[in-house]
C-alpha cells in the first residue's frame, strides 16, 4: 500500500503548484513519525546573528519545552514588530509527550535546513506540525497550504464507499467543536474484507471551536478532488487535517 501526493497550492496568491508526485511508504505502525511536507511561506528573509534569528531560536525552544505535555503550544517572542516571531506546534492527539517533543525538535532543525533564513515556514510530520511567521496568525484559519495524500487502491464499490467515508468524517467534524483538544477519532463498520473504516480529524487549538468546524468542513468538501473511491486518504492544511483508512490509524483504535 502506498500514498501519493497530489498537486498542491502552496500559496494561493502566488498560484504556485507542485506537480511532482511523491510516494510515501505506508505503515500500520503508529510509532513512525514520517516527514510529509514543508513550505517556505514568506518571501522575506532574515540574516544570521540578528534579533529575528535569536527570537526564532527562542520560539523553537519554548515550543519544544511547553507543547509536549498537552500536544499543543504557541510562542510569540520579541517586542519589536520587525523582529517578532510567532510560532505554533501541534502534535497528533494520541502522541506521547516524549514523541511529541522529539517530533518538534526534529521539525525545528529540519525547517531551518529546508527554509534557511525564511521569515515564515511550515513543516508537517505524521506526529506533528510546526510553523512560524513574522506576522500574527494565531486564531485565523490557514488556507495557504493544502496537501492531498491517498492510497492508490480503489474501493470495489466506489459510490457506497465514498458515502461511508463522507458520513464518518462528517460525523467526526460534528463532534470536534465540543472537544478540548479539537481532536476526534472514530470508526464504523463497512462491507468488505476490512470490515471497518477508521477516521481522524484535528485542528490547531488556536482556533475557536466554530472555526475548527469550518476548517474541517471545507477540507472534507475536498474529498472528491482528493480521494475519490480511494481506500485511504487525507487532507492536511496549516490549521486542520483529516485522515481515513481501512486499518487503525492510532493506538486507541486497535
TrEMBL record:
Protein name per UniProt: Cysteine-rich repeat secretory protein 38-like
UniProt organism field: Cucurbita maxima
Localization, UniProt: Secreted
GO annotations of cellular component type: extracellular region
Gnk2-homologous domain boundaries: 34-137, 143-249
First and last residue of the signal peptide: 1-25
Lineage, uppermost ranks: Eukaryota, Viridiplantae, Streptophyta, Embryophyta, Tracheophyta
Pfam families, A to Z: Stress-antifung
Entry keyword annotation includes Secreted: yes
Major site of localization recorded for this protein: secreted
Gene name, Swiss-Prot/TrEMBL: LOC111468290
Keywords from the UniProt entry: Glycoprotein, Repeat, Secreted, Signal
Similarity annotation: Belongs to the cysteine-rich repeat secretory protein family.
CDD domains reported for this sequence: Gnk2-like
Amino acid at each position: 500500500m502506498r500514498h501519493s501526493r497530489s498537486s498542491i497550492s502552496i500559496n494561493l496568491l502566488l498560484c504556485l503548484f507542485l506537480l511532482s508526485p511523491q510516494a510515501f511508504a505506508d505503515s500500520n505502525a503508529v510509532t513512525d513519525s514520517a516527514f510529509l511536507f514543508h513550505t517556505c511561506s514568506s518571501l522575506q528573509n532574515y540574516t544570521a546573528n540578528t534579533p529575528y534569528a535569536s527570537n526564532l531560536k527562542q520560539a523553537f525552544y519554548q515550543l519544544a519545552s511547553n507543547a509536549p505535555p498537552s500536544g499543543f503550544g504557541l510562542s510569540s517572542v520579541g517586542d519589536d514588530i520587525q523582529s517578532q516571531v510567532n510560532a505554533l506546534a501541534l502534535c497528533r492527539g494520541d502522541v506521547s509527550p516524549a514523541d511529541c517533543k522529539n517530533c518538534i525538535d526534529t521539525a525545528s532543525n529540519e525547517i531551518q535546513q529546508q527554509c534557511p533564513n525564511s521569515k515564515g515556514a511550515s513543516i508537517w510530520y505524521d506526529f506533528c506540525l510546526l510553523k512560524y511567521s513574522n506576522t500574527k496568525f494565531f486564531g485565523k484559519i490557514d488556507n495557504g497550504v493544502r496537501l492531498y495524500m491517498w492510497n492508490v487502491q480503489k474501493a470495489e464499490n466506489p459510490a457506497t464507499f465514498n458515502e461511508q467515508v463522507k458520513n464518518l468524517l462528517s460525523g467526526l467534524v460534528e463532534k470536534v467543536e465540543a472537544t478540548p483538544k479539537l481532536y476526534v477519532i472514530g470508526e464504523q463498520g463497512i462491507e468488505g474484507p476490512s470490515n471497518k473504516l477508521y477516521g481522524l480529524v484535528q485542528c490547531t487549538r488556536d482556533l475557536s471551536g466554530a472555526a475548527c468546524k469550518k476548517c474541517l468542513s471545507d477540507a472534507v468538501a475536498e474529498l472528491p478532488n482528493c480521494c475519490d473511491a480511494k481506500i485511504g486518504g487525507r487532507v492536511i492544511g496549516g490549521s486542520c487535517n483529516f485522515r481515513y483508512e481501512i486499518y487503525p490509524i492510532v493506538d486507541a483504535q486497535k
